[in-house]
Amino acid sequence: MNPAKFIPDVSELNYVTQLYVTRNLTVVVGLIGALLLRSHNALLLFLLVRLLTDIADVITVYALDVEVIKSSVPMVVVLLIVPALLASVYLWKRVGQQTQGHA
User: Fold this and answer.
1) What is the pTM of this model?
2) Cα 47 to Cα 42: distance, rounded to the nearest angstrom
3) Chain center to CA of 50
4) Exposed e or buried b for every residue in 46-72, given b needs 16+ CB within 10 A?
5) What is the CA radius of gyration of the chain?
6) For residues 64 and 18, what is the distance between their CA atoms, to the nearest angstrom?
7) All residues at 6 or more sequence positions from 44 whose CB lies less than 8 Å from its CB, including other chains
8) pLDDT by 10s per residue, the chain, length 103
């Protein structure tokens, strides 16, 4: 399996791209693990990590003025940040209800 085949106009992966792919695959494995464990706390933790990572990516794109990536920022916000934020708010409430129920 060659991840470069999934990235348009990339014939081979450089270090930064490989780092980004590895980071995303790690988060996916963590999310799958949290779902298999049926743990709201673990799922919330991984969603928050993902949310903070994506927000940091967006900030970095503008802070470093990376023109070639700026066009993908709206996609990142709509497909990655907003759903993770909504899910985190839901899970935060759910975890809070579970904590109150056990107290």
Assistant:
1) 0.73
2) 9
3) 3
4) bbbbbbeebbebbeebeeeeeeeeeee
5) 16
6) 20
7) 88, 91, 92, 95
8) 565 566 666 666 677 777 777 888 888 898 899 889 988 899 999 889 889 989 998 999 899 988 878 888 888 899 889 999 999 999 999 988 887 776 5
